[in-house]
Fold TMIG1 protein.
Amino acid sequence: MAQRRSLAVPYRAPVLAISFLACVATGLELSINNHAADFTLSAELGPPISLSCVVHNSSQAEELLWYRGDGQVGLKDGNKVNISNICISPVNESDHGVTFTCKLARDKSVQVSVSLDVQFPPRLSGEETLHVEEDKDVTLTCNSKSNPQAQTTWYKDNHNLTLQQNRHELHQTSEVFQLSIRKVQKSDNGTYTCVVESRLGNGTRDFYLIVEDKKPVFPKEAVIAAVVVVTITILFGIVARKDKFFKVW
């Protein structure tokens, strides 16, 4: 019986050791700017942002990795162990909504992330001059990037645009504001202004709509029919006078 008890001790020892190591590994934590859980960081255009990732509950040197979205950020050798810093400078519109993640190199499941909420006033773009024939449809597209989302108003020749049912239609998404006009008329000629307003500022963009005279429709069917008639007439004429042609030859 004594021998059986002595055999049981070394059998259990590796299990206890493995359990102890698992507790040490899972006890590691990371934090970004003192945030141990994922968070959102508000920012403005221009001023740089510093992000600092720190390892907690570690008794040894731990290598850290940074990711911008899905792409890994290159770090210098002295900026990888136990604490790592990156700087976003200058902050611009393309950084809005981007997630930066700090991960433990030997166990990438240990990680923490920060998403940037970059706020900026409206930035507008779009084709400025549009030519359209009378009785055709046209769409003015005002592209706008802003955070927070802005409100849009359309003007014509510096006056509030009066929307006519079945002729004017507005379409709006987070970044696109469209004004569609059906069967344009000469009276639709003019300058259309897209005004985008947010609490951080306003943006305007002018669109010049030039309504041209309606081009005459080329009667292709009538011309084809006339060519066919002329061709058939010539052929019948040749057939009717074939005897004379043969005599000449």
Summary: Confidence is low (pLDDT under 50) at residues 1-25. Helices lie at 2-26, 220-240, 242-248.
